[in-house]
Design brief:
The chain has 499 residues and is mainly α. The chain has 19 helices and no strands. α3 packs antiparallel against α11, α6 crosses α15 and α13 packs antiparallel against α14. The longest helix has 47 residues. It is globular and about 70 Å long. One of its GO terms (cellular component) is plasma membrane. Belongs to the sodium:solute symporter (SSF) (TC 2.A.21) family.
Length: 499
C-alpha cells in the first residue's frame, strides 16, 4: 500500500482521538453526560450516529459480499432494513424520548424496562442487561472481524494485529469521551461512509462502456442472476424482510432516540437518517453487483467476496483517495463497535453493578467503572474474533436476531400497552432470547443442521416473545395505578411536545 494511503489513515485516526479528547472535556463529568450526552444531541448528529452505528462494517463489506454471492436476493434484506428503520423512527423514537424521561429519567434501556413498572432494581433490569452484554460481545466481535480482514487484505498486516489496531483506536476515544464522543465520531464516520458508497460504485461502473456491457458481464459470471429476485422462495423472502423487525430492539440504535434534544427534533432526524440510509444501502448493493461484472470482465481475483469494496478501493483510485476509502470502512466498523461498547459498559455499571452493589456509588466513580466495562467487553470480543474464518454477515445476523427478538416486542409493548406487567416483560425477554439461541445452535434436523437453515431465527423469536408478553399480561395481576398514571403522563407529554 502506498505511503499516501497510510497518511490518510493516520489523519483519520488522529481526528477520531481528537474528538474523543474534546468530548472528554465537554461531557463526562456526570453519568448522564457520559451515557446519554445530557439528552442534548442534535437531530443531525442523532440521525447519522444512529445510521452509522446501525450499518457498521457489514454495510461496506458484508452486504456487498452478500450481493456478490447471492445476487438480487440480498435486495430483500435491504428492503426489510429500510422499512424497519422508518417504522423505528415513527413508532419508537418520539414516545421513547418522552417515556424514558418520565420514567425517572432512565439512562439505559434495562433501566427503562424496570422503571416502566415503577421499580428501580427489578429482575427485568438485570436480565436484560446480561442479554445486552452477551449479544453485544458477539456483535462487537463481528466488527473486529471486519477490521482484521481490512488490515489483512489492504495492508498485508497480520489478521490478529488488525484486530488489535481497530480495537485500540475505538476503545481509546470511547473511554475518553463517552456518548458525546461516540455520537460525534459517528457523525463524521457517517459522512465518510456516505461519500464512499456513492463514489466507489460510480467509478467502478464507469470502467464499462455501457450499462448493457456491465449487465452482460454480470449475467455471464452468474447464470440466472437476473432471475434470482423472482425465483427466491417465500420462506427466503420472509427471512430477508424480517431483518426489519430487529430495529425495535437494538439498544445501540434506540438509545439515540433517548438522547435527542427534543421530540420536535425527531422528524428532522428521521428525514436525514432515512435519506442517508437509502443512498448508502443502494451504494452497498451496487458495489456488490458491479463487482460481479468487473471480476468477470477484467479478470479480477476475488478470494473473499466480503472484500470487494476493498479491492475496488485499491485498484481504481489514487493512493490518497484509496486511504480515504479504507478510512470509510474503518469508520463503519468503529462507529458500531464504539456504540456497542458504550451501551454494554452502561449496562454493566448502571444495570448490574449499581443494582447489585450494597454501597452508594457517586457518578464520577460510576463513569470510571464504565470505562473498565468498555475494556472488559472489548477483550472478550477480541477473543471471539480471533477466528478469521467467521463471516461478518453471519455474526451480525445472529446478534441482530437476538436483540430483535428479546427486546423488540417488549419495547413496543412498553410504549403502547398500558396494562403490560413486569412478569410479562421478564418472560418475554427470556422467551425471545432462548428461542433465538435454540434456533441458531440446536442441531435438531436430521442432517445435524439447525433450524436457522430453514428460516431466519428472528421470526420465531419475535413471534414467541410477542405471544408470551400478551398471554402473561392477560393472566397476571394488572399493574397498579401509579404505573398506569406514568403511561398516561408520558402520552400526554408526547402530545404536548408534538403540538
Amino acid at each position: 500500500m502506498p505511503i499516501e494511503s497510510y497518511i490518510s489513515l493516520a489523519i483519520y485516526f488522529l481526528a477520531m482521538l481528537g474528538i474523543g479528547l474534546f468530548a472528554y472535556r465537554e461531557s463526562t463529568g456526570d453519568i448522564s453526560g457520559y451515557i446519554l450526552g445530557g439528552r442534548q444531541v442534535s437531530p443531525q448528529v442523532t440521525a447519522l450516529s444512529a445510521g452509522a452505528s446501525d450499518m457498521s462494517g457489514w454495510m461496506l463489506m458484508g452486504l456487498p459480499g452478500a450481493m456478490y454471492v447471492t445476487g438480487f436476493d440480498a435486495m430483500y434484506i435491504a428492503i426489510g432494513l429500510v422499512a424497519g428503520a422508518l417504522a423505528n423512527y415513527l413508532l419508537v423514537a418520539p414516545k421513547l424520548r418522552v417515556y424514558t424521561e418520565v420514567a425517572d429519567d432512565s439512562l439505559t434501556v434495562p433501566e427503562f424496562f424496570a422503571k416502566r413498572f415503577g421499580q428501580k432494581n427489578a429482575p427485568v433490569r438485570i436480565v436484560s442487561a446480561i442479554i445486552i452484554v452477551m449479544f453485544f460481545t458477539l456483535y462487537t466481535s463481528a466488527g473486529l472481524v471486519a477490521g482484521g480482514k481490512l488490515f489483512e487484505s489492504a495492508f498485508n498486516v497480520q489478521y490478529q494485529w488488525g484486530l488489535i489496531i481497530t480495537l485500540g483506536v475505538v476503545v481509546s476515544y470511547t473511554l475518553l469521551g463517552g456518548f458525546l464522543a461516540v455520537s460525534m465520531t459517528d457523525f463524521v464516520q457517517g459522512c465518510i461512509m456516505f461519500i464512499a458508497l456513492v463514489l466507489v460504485p460510480i467509478v467502478a461502473f464507469n470502467q464499462f462502456d455501457s450499462a448493457a456491457q456491465m449487465n452482460a458481464a454480470a449475467a455471464e459470471s452468474v447464470p440466472g442472476l437476473f432471475e434470482s429476485f423472482e425465483a427466491m422462495t417465500w420462506v427466503g423472502i420472509v427471512s430477508s424482510l424480517a431483518w426489519g423487525l430487529g430495529y425495535f430492539g437494538q439498544p445501540h440504535i434506540i438509545v439515540r432516540f433517548m438522547a435527542i434534544r427534543s421530540v420536535k427534533a425527531v422528524p428532522t432526524a428521521r428525514n436525514i437518517g432515512m435519506s442517508w440510509m437509502l443512498v448508502t444501502i443502494v451504494g452497498a448493493l451496487a458495489t456488490g453487483f458491479v463487482g460481479i461484472a468487473y471480476a468477470n470482465q477484467f479478470g479480477l481475483q476475488v478470494d473473499d467476496p466480503e472484500t470487494i469494496f476493498i479491492l475496488f478501493s485499491q485498484i481504481l483510485f489514487h493512493p490518497i483517495i484509496s486511504g480515504f476509502l479504507m478510512a470509510a470502512i474503518l469508520a463503519a466498523i468503529m462507529s458500531t463497535i464504539s456504540s456497542q461498547l458504550l451501551v454494554s459498559a452502561s449496562s454493566l455499571t448502571e444495570d448490574i453493578y449499581r443494582v447489585l452493589s450494597s454501597k452508594q456509588v457517586d457518578d464520577q466513580k460510576t463513569v470510571t467503572i464504565g470505562r473498565y466495562g468498555v475494556g472488559g467487553v472489548a477483550i472478550a470480543a477480541l477473543l471471539l474474533a480471533l477466528d478469521s474464518s467467521n463471516s461478518i454477515l453471519s455474526l451480525v445476523s445472529n446478534a441482530w436476531a437476538g436483540f430483535g427478538a428479546a427486546f423488540g416486542p417488549l419495547v413496543l409493548f412498553c410504549l403502547y400497552k398500558k396494562d403490560l406487567t413486569q412478569n410479562a416483560a421478564l418472560a418475554g425477554i427470556i422467551a425471545g432470547a432462548v428461542t433465538v439461541l435454540f434456533w441458531i445452535y440446536a442441531p435438531v434436523l436430521a442432517d445435524g443442521q439447525t433450524l436457522s437453515s430453514i428460516i431466519y431465527e428472528i421470526i420465531p423469536g419475535f413471534v414467541v416473545s410477542t405471544i408470551t408478553l400478551w398471554v402473561v399480561s392477560l393472566l397476571d395481576t394488572a399493574p397498579d395505578e401509579r404505573v398506569r398514571n406514568m403511561y398516561t403522563q408520558a402520552s400526554q407529554e408526547l402530545a404536548e411536545q408534538q403540538s
